[in-house]
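tokens incoming
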């Protein structure tokens, strides 16, 4: 039991010393916490972003059919495409 407590205290002191070093040296902070994600994850993220932007562009370029004409009767509807003479 005492060995576990002593080990925990030693790790805590070591972590506090490392934090103090990081405060004094900014480069050390980035060496500890600035790890790049694996290249596979970067590639997958870029592919998903490209597919998402392509999907959005296709949705904008191909609007869905509304299913009803601009003028659905013999009445004047006020649109130039529908004016009857």
């Amino acid at each position: 039991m005492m060995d576990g407590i002593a080990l925990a205290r030693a790790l805590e002191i070591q972590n506090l010393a490392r934090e103090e070093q990081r405060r004094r040296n900014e480069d050390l902070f980035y060496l500890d916490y600035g790890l790049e994600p694996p290249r596979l994850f970067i590639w997958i993220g870029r592919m998903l972003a490209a597919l998402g932007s392509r999907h959005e562009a296709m949705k904008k370029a191909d609007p869905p059919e509304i299913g009803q004409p601009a003028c659905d009767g013999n009445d004047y509807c006020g649109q130039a495409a529908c004016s009857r003479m």
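note: Helices lie at 2-24, 26-33, 39-61.
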